Amino acid sequence: MLEINDINVYYGAIHALKGVSVTVEEGQIVTLIGANGAGKSTTLRTISGLLKPKAGQVMFEGKSIAGMAVHNIVKLGISQVPEGRRIFANMSVLENLELGAYTRSDSKGIREDMDKIFSRFSRLAERKPQMAGTLSGGEQQMLAMGRALMSRPRLLLLDEPSMGLAPLLVKEIFSIIKEINASGTTVLLVEQNANMALSIAHKAYVLETGRITLSGTAEELAASEAVRKAYLGG
Amino acid sequence: MSKLQNTTKRDLLALGGCAVIYAIFQGLIGFGVIGPFWELNLILIGINIILAVSLNLITGFAGQFSIGHAGFMAIGAYLGAVATVKFQLPFIAAILVGAGAAGLLGFLIGLPTLRLSGDYLAIATLGLGEIIRISILNTPYLGGATGLMGIPRYTTFTWTFLAVIVTIFFIKNFVNSSHGRACISVRENEIAAEAMGIDTTKYKVMAFTIGAAFAGVAGALFSHYFYIAHPASFTFMKSFDILTMTVLGGLGSITGSITAAILLTFISAALASYPEWRMVVYSLMLIILMIYRPQGLFGNKELSLKLFGRLTGGKKRDVA
Q1: Which of A69, A148, B137, B187 is spaced 20 to 30 A from B310 at the CA atom?
Q2: Which residues cross the membrane (chain B) (predicted)?
Q3: Fold of A2-83+153-231
C-alpha cells in the first residue's frame, strides 16, 4: 500500500534521513521504533507531505506522492495524527471533528462516522460542546485520533500517541489503535514506547540516526537481543 | 428546517434593526439635530468599522498579523478617486474599483508574504504599507505630495451605512462558512489544519484578499468625503489606529471591532482640540488593556442578545 524507497530528508544542512526504506502492507499495523532524534517523526512527516524528500520515492498505492501538497495527500486517503496532538484548543470537540472531515462533502457519511467515533471514544461523546483545550491529555489524544479518522483514511499515521500519558491510558489508546486497524484501516505507528508498539504491530522497523538498522515481524524484533537491550529494558 | 427558519428570522430581525438605526440617524441628520461635526464623525465611525472588521478577518480570524492595512485603504482611496475624477465614473464604480484594486494587490502581495509567520509577516506588511504610500507620493498622476484634489463629495451617511452593513454581513457569513472555519483552524494550529487537508496558504491569501478589498471600500468612502486623497492620511500611524481598534475590540470578535471603532472614533473626536493627546490616550488604553484584558474587550466572543440574556439571567459564564 505504501512504499518508501531510499528517502533522504534534510533539515537545512542536517541530514536527518539517510536512505530510509519502509513498506506498509494493506491491513497491517507497522511500527517505527527508535530513540529520540532517530528520524521517526521525520519519516512520518515526509509521508504526510509536511517535509519534502531530497531524494528517494514515496509511493502510495502505486502513485508517487513525494512533493505533493499536504491537503492533496489527505484527499488520497492518508491522515496524520501529529506529534503532541495539536488539537484546535479554542474549538469545541464537535468542531474539531467537523474540521477532520474537511476534505469530505458527503454529509450523511460524515454523520455516520461521527457517531462511530463517539461510540468508540465514549469520553468524547460526553464532551461534545466542551472546548478541546480543556480536555485531559488522554482525551485530547483520543480527539486527535478521532479527528484524523473523520477524513476516512485508508492509512492512518500515528506520531507518538503514548506521549505524556499515564500507563493506563496508554493501554487504552493502544487497544483503540488495534480496534481501528481491525475495522480496516492500515496503521503506521511511530513510538518510543517500543514494548507497547511491538505488542500490537505486525511488522516493525528500528530507526537509528536516520537509518533503518533492523526490520522484521514484531515478534522477531521483540525477541531480538539487540532490540531487547536497547529498547525493551533488558 | 426549524434551524433554517430561525436563521431567516434572525437575519430579518437584524435587517429590521439596521433599518431602524439608519432611520433614526438619517432623521436626526435631516432635522439638523446632528450637525456637520457629528455627521463627519458618524461617517468616520462607519469607515473605521469597515477597516476594523476587515482587519479582524485577517488578524483575528485567520491569525495573520498585518500592520499595513492603511496601504490597502490608500489604494482604494486613490484608485476610487481616479475613477471619479479622471474618468467621471459614478460613485458605485469608484467603490468597486477601489475594492477590486486593493483586493488584487492583497492577493498578489499575499501569495509570497503569507508564507512568513508572526513577526516576520508583521514586518513585511509594515514595509508593504510604506511602499504603497511612498509610491503614491512619487506618482505625479496621483497628485504626488500635494495629494489628489478635486474629488467630488459623494460619500453620504447613507452610502457609508450601506457599506458598513454589506461589510459586516459579508464578513460574518464568510467567518461562519466552511471557508471561515478553515481560516480559524489555520489561526488555531497551522500544522494541524494542514494535516486535516486544509490548503492553509489558500485560506490565508483568501482572508488577506477579502480584508484588503474591504479596506479599499473604506478608502474610497474616505477620499470621497474629504474632497482630497493625501499620502499623509495613510501612514503607519493609520495602520496602527486600525490595529488598535481590532485588538481593543478583541481578535476574532466582529461586534468587538464595531464597538471599539465607535469608542475610539468618539475618543478622537472628543480630543479634537488636543490632537497631541490622542496617541497618548490610545497607547494608555492599549497598555491598560494588555494588563487587565489581553484578549480584548470581547475576546473572541460575539455580543448577542443570547449573551445579554445569559448575563442578565444571572447565569454568568467566565469568558476569559
Answers
A1: B187
A2: 12-34, 40-58, 65-85, 91-111, 118-136, 156-175, 205-227, 247-272, 279-298
A3: Rossmann fold (3.40.50)
CA distance readout (Å), B174 to A214, B61, B141, B215: 52, 10, 36, 16
Instruction: Give the confidence band of A131 by pLDDT, cuts at 50, 70, 90.
Output: very high
User: What does A127-180 look like in DSSP terms, one character per residue?
Assistant: TTTSBGGGS-HHHHHHHHHHHHHTT--SEEEEE-TTTT--HHHHHHHHHHHHHH
Q: How many pairs of residues across A and B have Cβ atoms under 8 Å apart?
A: 61
Identity of the residue in B178, B189, B198 whose CB atom sits nearest the CB atom of A71: B198
| Contact with chain A for residue B183, Cβ under 8 A | no
* Residues of A in Cβ contact (< 8 Å) with B198: 71, 99, 102
Choose among B214, B216, B221: nearest CA to B91. Answer: B221
Nearest CA in chain B to A86: B192
Average pLDDT, chain A: 90
Cβ contact (<8 Å) for A71 and B185?
no
- Would an 8 Å CB–CB cutoff place A166 in contact with chain B? no
Residues of A in contact with B115 (CB under 8 A): none
Collect all residues with Cβ–Cβ distance below 8 Å to A28 and sequence separation of at least 6.
A181, A186, A187, A201, A202, A203
Residue at B271 is within a domain: no
CB atoms within 10 A of CB B139: 13
A99 in reach of chain B (CB within 8 A): yes
CA torsion B230-B233-B234-B239 (nearest 10°) is -170
**Grid cell in block for residue A72:** 492533496
* Residue B194: inside a domain: yes
DSSP H helical segments within B56-156, as ranges?
69-85, 91-113, 118-137
What is the tally of structural domains in chain B?
1
Nearest CA in chain B to A158: B195
Give residue for cell 494587490: B105
Distance from the A89 Cα atom to the nearest Cα atom in chain B, whole angstroms: 7
> What band does B318 get if pLDDT is binned at 50, 70 and 90?
very low
Cβ burial, residue B169 (10 Å; 0-12/13-18/19+): middle
Q: Does B185 touch chain A if contact means CB atoms closer than 8 Å?
A: yes
Taking the C-alpha atoms of residue B41 and residue A206, their distance in angstroms, rounded to an integer, is 69
What pLDDT was estimated at residue B34? 86
In a domain, B292, yes or no: no
Cβ distance A82 to B195 less than 8 Å, yes or no, reads yes
pLDDT digits over B144-160, tens only?
999 999 999 999 999 99
pLDDT of B1 reads: 42
